[in-house]
Every structure is written in structure tokens, then in C-alpha cells.
């Protein structure tokens, strides 16, 4: 039902209205890109401005008449608004112009439905669609509107709507149950990676910034990449090798967009968990885009919404091959840490600098030292071996155990806590000592 699409593009009219009180205005250019990504064939673009949207039809009566003429002139099958419409506004507009109406949220949901490939992705999209549709069911029963109440005049309309709503609720409940199972499976995978001390690096960014192209270049994967919005929907994980760090997991995730529908954020929370629990985020930015800064702000907004704003971020300025006199480089902060890498995912220029920057940032969290343990500290030695942290071992003439240890600092802290050993013994005097630890 939700994944069948017409073979040819539907003839569509696009509408963008500038509102006087809008702080964050939508982009008309982005609406056209979204429509093309959905497979529509835009034939006209209707623009205008209003102080406030009309409660009944969003646009004024004059624009409604103008829209009617455009629909008849182009024999349009679809009208797409670059705004969120209420169910009543959609219904009233369809009655007035006798053409199907879709708002920005519905358009994004449709694109997601087309892109979903995995079982989990399809479930997540269907959940968001069903929740969006639940407030718009009456639109499908407008042929029963003339039936009046009263004895002998009660028709099946209300009964059918209630049946549909009940079926929707049952389907939503079923999907939530299945997604909960998927979440638990993902959580098991994350716990296994955590136990094996493999760091996770997650690609994030505005849609069409070049995340999948970069992911394919780094991992030799074959993730679908195209010059269109939301080319990637389902997350992909690949193992990569990093100098001074060892194996790491690289995750390619769905792109963000301005005013990403909240229903989608909620439905994709299991997928976005890869972002929340990553050790490092690679924020891929289209360096050639005129709206670069607004897209950066939007990504930060979504990261805050999903609770990932505390995860360390390395900015990746992509598409330098389209800029004049741009060279691959690493920008650093006052402490000398990498904060930004300039590269081209298409040509591969600067990708080796990305590896270097990621290795530097992740190795900051790696404890790699030679430790001397007393003979009676065999328990600590055993814990290091159990964690897979021992690279080399030797015993001197006094019975001292010399270990070359390589382990994530957070895992070392947990290990020392279990053994009731003061962390400053190995991490230096500047480490805050929990009250319950003894020297």
C-alpha cells in the first residue's frame, strides 16, 4: 500500500508563500529539489506573501483562483505546498481546486517511503506515515458527507471511519512492537562493539551533502549515492582501520533537512541511536552550497533534538573540487586539535587528511603505556588480559610484571573502579578521584 509508486512522474504545481512572521523560512529551491527527488514533474511554481496563513485554505481566495487556473491549464495531478498544512486546509483546498494536495511533511514522508530498503526502514516510514494519516482519514470519505443524522438517515460513514481508525491503531501498535524488537537487536550490537572496545564514527549532515559518496570512498562500500535529497535512508555500518586507533566502525546515516518532521525523528530514533552513541561525529558540509550556514545550524538543531549535541564533532567541508583555489587541509583549534577537514569525496583529495584527523581525535581517548605491576597484582594483570588490552608482557629479575597496555581511557577507568584502584596512579594526578577509591 505505502510503497507502490507510479512509473512516470506526476505533473505537479509547487506553492511557496512567504509569511511575514516566519523566522525560519523554507527554501523554494529546496521544495523543487524535494519534488524532483519524489519523482514529480514540476510544471509551475506559484509564489506569494501573506501576513498570516488563512485558517481555511492557507492561501487567500485570490491565490486559490489562480491555483485553479494553473491546475486546469497544466492538467496537474498534484499540488505541493512548501509548508505544513492542517488536515482541514488540505481537505478544503482539494474541494476547491479538485486536485490532490500534499504538504511538505507528506512530501518528505513519500520520499522516505521510496528510499526505504530494509525491513526496519520500511517499518519506520510506515509508522510515520500512519501517524500522519490518522488525522486525515476523513478526506478519503468525502463522498459520504451529504448523509445527514437522524432517524432513518444514519449512514455508514461514521462507522467506516471508526473502523479505519481502529485498524490504524492496531497497525501502529503492531509496528511499534516490531520496532521495539529491532531496537533491542541494535542495542545488543552496540553493547558487543562496546565490549570489544571498537569506537564508532558516525557520518551526519544535511541531505545531499555527500555523506554516502564519502562513505563509499572510505570503505569501498556500494551504498546508493546520487545528486538528490535523501538518496540514503537505511543506515550502513562498515569496519575501517585507523592508525594509532586500530579497527573502528563507520556509520552512514540518513541526511537531515530543515524542519525535519517530528514524526520522522521519533520513528527513526532507533536508527539515529547510532548517532547518539557514537564516539565521534563527522559533520559533512557542502562547501559549495550558498545556504551552507543555515544547513549547519539545522543539523545542530536536529542533533540537539535527538540528544547527540554532546558527542564530539569534526566538520568535513566536502566538494572542494567545485570551489576555486580550494586546497585539502586540516583546520585546528588553539589546542592543536583538528576541528575541520577540507576535501572532495568525488576525487578523493584530502581523504587521507580525514583519516589523520579522525585518528588524532580518537587516539586522545586511548591509553597506550608501559605499566609495571607488582607480583601480587596478578588480578589487575588478569583484568587487562580479559579486556584484550595487553600488547606485550615481560617479567624482570625482581618479579615485576611489565605490560604494554592499549585501552580506551573510559574502559580503563571502569576497570580500575572495579579493582578499587586510584585512577591517578596510571592517569596522573589531575584526574578527579572518586571518594570511595583508596590509594
From TrEMBL:
Gene3D superfamilies per UniProt? 6.10.250.2860, GTPase HflX, N-terminal domain, P-loop containing nucleotide triphosphate hydrolases
Where is it localised? Answer: Cytoplasm
Lineage, top ranks: Bacteria, Pseudomonadati, Pseudomonadota, Gammaproteobacteria, Oceanospirillales
Gene behind this protein: hflX
**What protein am I looking at?**
GTPase HflX
Q: Which domain of life is it from?
A: Bacteria
- Organism of provenance: Amphritea japonica ATCC BAA-1530
Per UniProt, residues of the Hflx-type G domain are 199-366
Could you give a GO molecular-function term held by this entry?
A: metal ion binding
According to the record's subunit comment, the protein's assembly and interactions are:
Monomer. Associates with the 50S ribosomal subunit.
Question: Which cofactors are reported in the record for this sequence?
Answer: Mg(2+)
Amino acid at each position: 500500500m505505502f510503497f507502490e509508486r507510479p512509473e512516470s512522474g506526476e505533473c505537479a504545481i509547487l506553492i511557496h508563500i512567504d509569511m511575514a512572521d516566519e523566522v525560519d523560512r523554507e527554501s523554494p529551491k529546496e521544495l523543487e529539489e524535494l519534488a524532483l527527488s519524489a519523482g514529480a514533474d514540476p510544471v509551475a511554481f506559484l509564489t506569494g506573501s501573506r501576513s498570516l496563513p488563512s485558517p481555511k485554505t492557507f492561501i487567500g481566495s485570490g491565490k486559490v483562483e489562480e491555483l485553479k487556473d494553473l491546475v486546469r491549464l497544466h492538467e496537474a495531478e498534484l499540488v505541493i505546498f512548501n509548508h505544513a498544512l492542517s488536515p482541514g486546509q488540505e481537505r478544503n483546498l482539494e474541494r476547491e481546486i479538485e486536485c490532490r494536495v500534499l504538504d511538505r511533511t507528506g512530501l518528505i514522508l513519500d520520499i522516505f517511503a521510496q528510499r526505504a530498503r530494509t525491513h526496519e526502514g520500511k517499518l519506520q516510514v510506515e509508522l510515520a506515515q500512519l501517524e500522519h494519516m490518522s488525522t486525515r482519514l476523513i478526506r478519503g470519505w468525502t463522498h459520504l458527507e451529504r448523509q445527514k443524522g437522524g432517524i432513518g438517515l444514519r449512514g455508514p460513514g461514521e462507522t467506516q471511519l471508526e473502523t479505519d481508525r481502529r485498524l490504524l491503531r492496531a497497525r501502529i501498535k503492531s509496528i511499534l512492537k516490531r520496532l521495539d524488537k529491532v531496537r533491542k537487536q541494535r542495542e545488543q550490537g552496540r553493547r558487543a562493539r562496546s565490549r570489544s572496545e571498537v569506537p564508532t564514527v558516525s557520518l551526519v549532515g544535511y541531505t545531499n551533502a555527500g555523506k554516502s559518496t564519502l562513505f563509499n570512498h572510505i570503505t569501498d562500500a556500494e551504498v546508493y549515492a546520487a545528486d538528490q535529497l535523501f538518496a540514503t535512508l537505511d543506515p550502513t555500518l562498515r569496519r575501517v582501520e585507523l592508525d594509532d586507533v586500530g579497527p573502528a566502525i563507520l556509520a552512514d546515516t540518513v541526511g537531515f533537512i530543515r524542519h525535519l518532521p517530528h514524526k520522522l525523528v521519533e520513528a527513526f530514533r532507533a536508527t539515529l541511536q547510532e548517532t547518539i552513541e557514537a564516539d565521534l561525529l563527522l559533520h559533512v558540509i557542502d562547501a559549495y552550497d550558498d545556504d551552507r550556514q543555515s544547513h549547519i545550524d539545522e543539523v545542530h538543531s536536529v542533533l540537539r533534538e535527538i540528544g547527540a549535541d554532546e558527542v564530539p564533532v569534526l566538520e568535513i567541508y566536502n566538494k572542494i573540487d567545485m570551489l576555486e583555489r580550494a586546497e585539502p587541509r586540516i583546520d585546528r583549534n588553539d589546542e592543536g586539535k583538528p576541528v575541520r577537514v577540507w576535501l572532495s569525496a568525488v576525487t578523493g583529495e584530502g581523504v587521507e587528511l580525514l583519516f589523520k584527523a579522525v585518528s588524532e581525535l580518537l587516539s586522545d581517548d586511548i591509553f597506550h603505556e608501559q605499566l609495571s605491576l607488582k607480583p601480587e597484582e596478578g588480578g589487575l594483570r588478569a583484568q587487562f588480559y580479559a579486556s584484550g588490552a595487553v600488547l606485550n608482557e615481560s617479567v624482570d629479575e625482581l618479579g615485576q610484571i611489565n605490560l604494554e597496555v592499549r585501552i580506551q581511557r573510559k574502559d580503563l577507568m571502569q576497570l580500575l573502579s572495579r579493582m578499587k584502584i586510584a585512577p591517578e596512579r596510571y592517569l596522573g594526578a589531575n584526574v578527579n578521584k572518586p571518594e570511595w577509591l583508596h590509594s
